[in-house]
Amino acid sequence: MSDYSGAVTKSGYYLTTGQENKMYVLRYNWEQTWWIGDRSGQNHRDYHVRNLSIDYDKAVAKAKEYVARRNKNSDTQETLIINNQTSLNKIVQRDKEVIAAEKAKKAEWEALKAKWSEEALERTARKNNNFVYACWANYMARSCKSFDTLQNGQLDTENRITMTGTIKTIKEYENNFSYYESYVYKSVIELDTGHRVFGSVPTYKCSKRNCKIRLQEGERVTFDAKLEKPEDFDGTFYYYKRPTKVQPLDIREVA
Questions:
Q1: Helix locations, 96-185, DSSP H
Q2: Helices (H) and strands (E) in the chain, counts
Q3: Last residue within a domain, chosen from 87, 119, 141
Q4: Burial of 199 (0-12, 13-18, 19+ CB in 10 A)
Q5: Is residue 74 part of a domain?
Q6: Residues of the domain holding 224
C-alpha cells in the first residue's frame, strides 16, 4: 500500500435560478477529491447563499458586489461563475392572485399556530390550577385530620402505654452501633386515635418455630411502649421505644 496522499479542492459562487424559478439566486459550490494510498473519495457541498433579483442584470450586479466584498475581507479569493441568461431557466413571475393566495395560506397557517399555542397555554393553566387545587385539598385533609387527632388529647409520655394501630411505612437504616454491616428497621404506625408514632418495627414470636416475625406495612398491631415527644412537637407525632407485648391483629405464620 502506498503512503502517497493528497486532495484537490475546487470552490466558488455561481449565479442560477432559485426554487420554482421565482428569481435569480447566488449559490456556493465546494468539491474535494482526496486519496490516501489506494483509497480515494469525493466530498461535495452546494448551498444557497442569498436571493438576488428577478431582473438578470440587477442579479449579476448584486452577485459581483457580494463576492467582491467577501474576497476583500478574506484571505481566500473565491471565483464567481455568471451563467448566460439564455442558459438559465426563465424566471416565472407570480401574478397578483397567486401572491394573494400564498399570503392567505401563510396567514391561515400563522393563525392555526397561534390557536395551538393558545390551547397549549390553556391546558398548562388548567394543569397548574388542578395541581394547586390538589395541594390545597391535600393540605385541608391533613389539617382536618390533625384537628380531629388533637381533639383526642395528648398521649401519656410518662408511663408505658398500650397502643393499637396500623403500620403505614417501614424503612431500613444503617446500624451505626454494630461492628458488622447490618440494618435496623423503623416504622411509622398510625394509631386508632389518629396519632402517629415512629420507632423500631414491632416483632412477635411465631407459634410453630422458635423465631420472630417482623410486622409488615398495612398490618394492624397492639403493643406496649414508652412515648417521647419530638423537639418540634405538634400534638400528633411521637417517638416510641422498646415495643413489648406485641399482639398482631393480622396473624401471619411462617411455614
A1: 96-151
A2: 2, 11
A3: 87
A4: buried
A5: yes
A6: 160-248
Among candidate residues 26, 59, 87, the one where a domain is terminated: 87
pLDDT digits (tens, 9 = 90+) for 62-98: 999 999 998 988 888 899 998 888 888 888 777 788 8
Q: Which of 232, 229, 226 lies closest to 245, judged by CA? A: 226
The answer to whether residue 9 sits within a structural domain is yes
For residue 210, being part of any structural domain is answered with yes
User: What is the number of structural domains in the chain?
Assistant: 2
Q: Which of the 8 DSSP states describes residue 37?
A: T
> CB-based burial of residue 63 (10 Å sphere; 0-12 exposed, 13-18 middle, 19+ buried)?
buried
Q: What is the reported pLDDT for 141?
A: 79
- Estimate to the nearest angstrom the gap between the alpha carbon of 156 and the chain centroid: 49
- CB neighbour list of residue 246: distance below 8 Å, 6 or more residues apart: 202, 203, 204, 215, 221, 222, 223
pLDDT at 2 over 80: no
Q: What is the pLDDT of residues 15-42, one digit of tens each?
A: 999 888 888 999 999 999 988 888 889 8
CB-count exposure of residue 1 (10 Å: 0-12, 13-18, 19+): exposed
Q: What is the CATH number of the domain that holds 165?
A: 2.40.50
Whether residue 199 has pLDDT greater than 50? yes
Q: Which of 89-98, 130-139, 176-185 has the lowest mean pLDDT?
A: 176-185
Residue 146 lies in a domain: no
